[in-house]
Amino acid sequence: MTIEPGGHLVSVSAGSLLHDALEQAGVRLTLPCGGQGRCGRCIVVVQEGSVRRRSTARLTEDEIARGFALACQTVVLSDVAVWVPPEVEELERAESATRPAKEAPDVMVCEHEAEPWVTQYELEITPPSLSDNTPDLERLQRELALQYDLRDLAPTSAPGTALRVLRELPAVLRDAQWHVVASVEHPASGPPRLVGVDPAAAPAPALGLAIDIGTTSVVIYLGDLATRELVGNASAYNGQIACGDDIISRIIYAKEPARQRELQERVLATINSLIDEMMVNASARGEPLSPEQIRRVTVAGNTTMLQLFLGIDPRYIRLEPYVPAAGRYVPIQARELGLHTNPDAFVDCLPVVGAYVGADITAGAVRAGLHAEEAISLFVDIGTNGEMVLGNSDWLICCACSAGPAFEGSGAVSGTRAVPGAIEEVWIHPDTLEPTWTTIGGKPPVGICGSGMISLLGEMVMTGVIDKGGHIVAEGPRVRRGSFGREYVVAWSHETAKGASGPDIVLTETDIENLLRAKAAIYAGLVCLTESVGLGVGDVERVLIGGAFGRHIDVEKAIQIGLLPDMAWDRFTYLGNTSVQGAYLALTCREHRALVDDVASKMTYLELSADNRFMDAFTSALFIPHTDETLFPSVQQALRELGEARGGSA
Amino acid sequence: MTIEPGGHLVSVSAGSLLHDALEQAGVRLTLPCGGQGRCGRCIVVVQEGSVRRRSTARLTEDEIARGFALACQTVVLSDVAVWVPPEVEELERAESATRPAKEAPDVMVCEHEAEPWVTQYELEITPPSLSDNTPDLERLQRELALQYDLRDLAPTSAPGTALRVLRELPAVLRDAQWHVVASVEHPASGPPRLVGVDPAAAPAPALGLAIDIGTTSVVIYLGDLATRELVGNASAYNGQIACGDDIISRIIYAKEPARQRELQERVLATINSLIDEMMVNASARGEPLSPEQIRRVTVAGNTTMLQLFLGIDPRYIRLEPYVPAAGRYVPIQARELGLHTNPDAFVDCLPVVGAYVGADITAGAVRAGLHAEEAISLFVDIGTNGEMVLGNSDWLICCACSAGPAFEGSGAVSGTRAVPGAIEEVWIHPDTLEPTWTTIGGKPPVGICGSGMISLLGEMVMTGVIDKGGHIVAEGPRVRRGSFGREYVVAWSHETAKGASGPDIVLTETDIENLLRAKAAIYAGLVCLTESVGLGVGDVERVLIGGAFGRHIDVEKAIQIGLLPDMAWDRFTYLGNTSVQGAYLALTCREHRALVDDVASKMTYLELSADNRFMDAFTSALFIPHTDETLFPSVQQALRELGEARGGSA
After folding, report:
1. Which residues have a Cβ under 8 Å from the Cβ of B476 and sit 6 or more positions away?
2. Nearest partner of A356 among A399, A406, A312, A311, judged by Cα
3. Rounded to a whole number, what is the distance in Å from the CA of A451 to chain B's nearest CA?
4. Cβ of B299 under 8 Å from any chain A Cβ?
5. How many whole angstroms separate alpha carbon A535 and alpha carbon A532?
6. ipTM value of the model?
7. Count of beta carbons in the 10 Å neighbourhood of residue A127
8. Residue range(s) in chain A whose domain bears CATH number 3.10.20.880
9. Residue A649 pLDDT > 60, yes or no?
10. How far apart are CA B444 and CA B424, in angstroms?
11. Domain span(s) for CATH 3.30.420.480 in chain A
12. For the CA atoms of B195, B200, B201, B206, what is the dihedral angle to 10 degrees?
């Protein structure tokens, strides 16, 4: 097989997948859909030789005739020469180099008085003598009992007291001249554990990490376990993105053990590089920290992300009846995962409720505080899945609906993640149908991100570019027919980051269809949740929007397209990244950690795939804003007013 | 540097130790004394070039003139050519190839009714469905609660539930069609832990290992945790022997971290090869076992051996005030050490009392049963150290006295360990002073082992070859002057395994001096122990002899030389390897495990190095049988009778 550019010559046996053959030759392609042949991002051109295309989705007949093939769906039958378009190969590098737009950390520090997970005790110890040659460990324990009344710290009842501590103990005690600081972990149950001994002359606060492993981004907060103060924060794209954009793509990618390990290694590499970065930043600030100080790690994320992080096969999450390996994870130590922390650090993965209601939701619900109020609130986290929790201090019910990747960038021809240059807001002139837009960071546009899609779709329906069924009905210079049906041009190529030689930024009817499915799934979930407890959508008193994406949604536009229920804007609250915030609360406060378990066990999981009402509600919601317009009176009103205005001006 | 034979040419910088330079060149020498220059086993001949001898102990002036040097004590000053005598280089290979004489396993199975450490529960589990998609782990736990009332097995309170189990759980449950066997560990404190799930169709009993890590030999018993039956056993020399024969030599060898790691790796390699061997043997018997079945490991051994096994610096054991790192060790998992067992197996190192009273003694004392009787008993383990425990069900007091390597083979010119061909019993004709002897396995003699030394020394004193001070006073063809003073020839070279070209097997006055020091140290320890509780040696009602060496001691001869107290032979009992037996009891019975802790905490440690009475008692015991002959009436009587007989026959 010959690969251009680069001219590698690789001999591959017949039957090998083109993607795998290219990977062997060192050419890595990005697989946003995990290798399902759905996204069309791995298109290459077979110039010579024989191949068999398992799927030709996303390819026109003309393209196939010219040798175009999806690398993830094409089997090599003979020696072949393959041209890899630079953008296909470069995609990964470009995306991994680009950070998600930096968000200010949003830390909620609680007022609880509970003891921290790890407490440090300063000790002056009488050195041993011939008349008292008590062993080192027992001597230390004796002092902890005498000076701090820590009497249960006997080694036989301390399953976590690490061998590493014991190995270092004799030298540390003597080097520190018997003046040390003992770090003692107080687990949720069982006796305290001695987790570290350091010289008192060089005290180092015990730190903890709160991690949100998102399908798209990984966000880390570093906190002081004693003071609960935020010490650092960092975020990056999840290194697994090259293996699939959404959960299902990742699960499909992970079908072989080696690939499952690859996914685990990728997310661990992302986390470790973020830890390293925080250490470097701290040094640059003149406040150096050591990874050894990180003595606890609290992890939130959806069920698939947690299973991949822990190296647990995620396949049964995708297969009916959709069963996670565990609801509450087992206690593990950082050394088992190779995290760049103290190897004895306890890694606490927060509990999940079901295959599609993960720890991002249990942590997020605690952050949102649903359990603490009498008012019926809805907590909603919109991403490739829309997860929702409805309830109050008496009851909680939750569900997940598969929204697809429409809001995450890869579900649309000109979709992008929320990177600098992403179009995030759009306005369409009702008369000329000409758009204006803003991009993240004010950079030349590279595509449309999720919030931009909502904004754009809202404008298109309000200005009559599309009808209620999502069909592009207007005519004009911005409307044309493309490869995927009719499309609306949001930005001409010369306006974009790629310039005149690149493609225009468009929204196609197929994209709109995906967006409608996404918003319909979420709204249908809300309908099913409320109906299952005998309520109507209107009975929801507050809507708490979580998730990194939620922060960017324009409520007005989201109501216009029927994604969010039509109610007064002041009943909506943005909470930002509720997953990492909930993890930070659980990291810094044991009472909040207990709350996550309580909330998780209190949540009733409504399985929508077993619910006929869901399909009905979904079908009804496939219109803009909804088949039943009375559910969206403010939109009805605005449409009427705009129609009158247009009618007036026509 | 040139090395012969082999003719390696290695350039070593000046200042490098000859031993290290040889090791770099791939020539490994055995260092029985750990590199202290005391044993003379690493003698090489410097043929060319310049060296500096730090120590010339064990070398005559003539030998030095001929280039002889101790590799462990000689610094290379220039390019040198070194001749390594084959026996010096080959020693290690020969010794590691030779197994200790095989002992029949000596297992005490107790009658306690306590639950085993690991119990297996068969479970038929209802598969998940859309109406009940409880996660796998919680589904299993629910069944364990319903079917076996194991209600505390919640993951948050099970710090040992291994990630590995969770990783395998989804596939095992489904492959086994929801019919599985759950292995549940019941720790000494805290809730039970799920440690394994296997298909019910392929049940595999939970096994455990009891290990005695001796300074010389490692002995392993493999048992069924449920039935307590012995499944296999194996033993080998401790791979650390090449780095020193006794504890102090090993500690000296371990002074650099790399060497400490080497010692840990060596003993782990010994243990792992024994486990592998048992697996191979089981397969050969048609009863294949898997290392995965080994779910618990109980380890006994002296304090230094345990610290080296765990990778804990042993240096403070040797330095005043002689402090071990811990009395009770921390709980660890087999994966932390790389044992060839189930990686989640709990490794339970039994408690030590002091730097020189280790887990071999706490385990041995429990096996001996001192704590269970009203009669005052003495438990004694004779090796390079003589450890003793005196007491009964009300009290226990212990001490350790450094006997040196005289009984272990390397403390004498013709000393050897108890390998096939070792002279183990000697009789000397009272008139001709000609010896007859038996060897282990009836092989041609290779040297004299510890029991042979005791036997020989007893004969020598009873036949007047030596006087009460240990000086060789007889004359005759067997007595001559050698490099280390006068010596008695036990076997002429032509009778030995090496043949006429090899050395004669002898006992020198220096050897006798070492033997006297060894036996005096042990007897003095006994005197101090009894006096410290206001008793006399005669108040001891039973003497229980433990340790692998103890099994071979001839009580009559041991009393003759004043090693053991003079009392009726039926008050002595041989128990064999009490360390591994005690470990096996603790492995197979939780009540016995608790007893080891009880006994360890009940033992008062008498530090002899701080006790002036010890030096007095030691000096008094440097005669044969003792300065105070009234302490050994039977020996006095026998000597008188023999003297009369000789007087009569002369």
Report:
1. B432, B433
2. A399
3. 34
4. no
5. 7
6. 0.84
7. 12
8. 118-199
9. no
10. 12
11. 207-359
12. 40
CA distance B525 to A539: 86
Contact assessment for residue A387 and residue A400, using Cβ atoms and an 8 Å cutoff: yes
A133 touches chain B (CB under 8 A): yes
CATH fold of the domain at B2-97: Ubiquitin-like (UB roll) (3.10.20)
d(CA A107, CA B232) in angstroms, rounded, equals 59
- Please, where in chain A does CATH 3.10.20.30 lie? 2-97
A40, two tokens: 């069309």
**CB of B128 within 8 Å of any CB in chain A?**
yes
Does the beta carbon of B607 lie under 8 angstroms from any beta carbon of chain A? yes
**A368-405+516-639 has which fold?**
Nucleotidyltransferase; domain 5 (3.30.420)
Q: Collapse the DSSP code of B39 into the 3-class scheme (helix H, G, I; strand E, B; otherwise coil) and give the result.
A: coil
Nearest Cα of chain A lies from the Cα of B154 at a distance, in angstroms, of 9
A332: chain B residues, CB-CB within 8 Å: 163
Average pLDDT, chain A: 88
> SS3 sequence, A270-339?
HHHHHHHHHHHHHHHCCCCCCHHHEEEEEEEECHHHHHHHHCCCCHHHHCCCCCCCCCCCCCEEHHHHCC
Shortest distance between the Cα of A196 and any Cα of chain B, in A, equals 13
Burial class (CB in 10 A: 0-12, 13-18, 19+), B435: buried
Residue A158, chain B, CB below 8 Å: the answer is yes
**B194: which strand partners?**
B184
pTM of the model: 0.84
Any residues with CB less than 8 A from the CB of B572 and at least 6 apart, and which? B542, B543, B545, B555, B564
Q: Does A321 contact B128 at a Cβ distance shorter than 8 Å?
A: yes
pLDDT at residue A411, rounded to an integer = 77
Judge whether B1 and B48 are in contact, CB under 8 Å.
no
Q: What integer pLDDT is reported at residue A404 of this predicted model?
A: 76
Residue with tokens 């032509």: B494
A to B CB pairs, distance under 8 Å? 183
Report the distance separating Cα B140 and Cα A325, nearest Å. Answer: 11
Residue type, A577: N
Sequential DSSP letters for B322-358: ---S-SSPPPEEHHHHT-SS-TT-EEEEPP-SBTTB-
Using CB atoms, pick whichever of B167, B313, B607 lies closest to residue A312.
B167
Fold (topology level) of B118-199: Ubiquitin-like (UB roll) (3.10.20)
* Least trusted range by pLDDT, from A14-28, A274-288, B167-181: A14-28
Taking residue B318's Cβ as centre, other Cβ atoms within 10 Å add up to: 17
Q: Residue B331: which of A128, A159, A322 has the nearest Cβ?
A: A159
Distance from the A539 Cα atom to the nearest Cα atom in chain B, whole angstroms: 27
Of B135, B327, B609, the CB nearest to A323: B135
**Among B137, B140, B156, which would you mutate to test the A interface (most chain A Cβ atoms within 10 Å of its Cβ)?**
B156
Across chain A, how many H-helices and E-strands are there? 19, 28
> Any idea how long chain A is?
650
CB-CB neighbours of B41 under 10 Å: 19
Nearest-CB residue to B354 (from A133, A326, A336): A133
pLDDT given at position A533: 96
pLDDT at A609: 81
Strand partners, B402: B385
Architecture of domain B207-359: 2-Layer Sandwich (3.30)
Q: Which CATH architecture has domain B369-405+516-639?
A: 2-Layer Sandwich (3.30)
Measuring CA to CA, how many Å separate B375 from each of A116, B370, B540, B576, B592? Answer: 53, 8, 8, 21, 21
Q: Which residue has the tokens 């687990």?
A: A187
Provide mean pLDDT across the span A175-196.
88
What whole-number distance in Å separates Cα of residue B98 and Cα of residue B95? 5
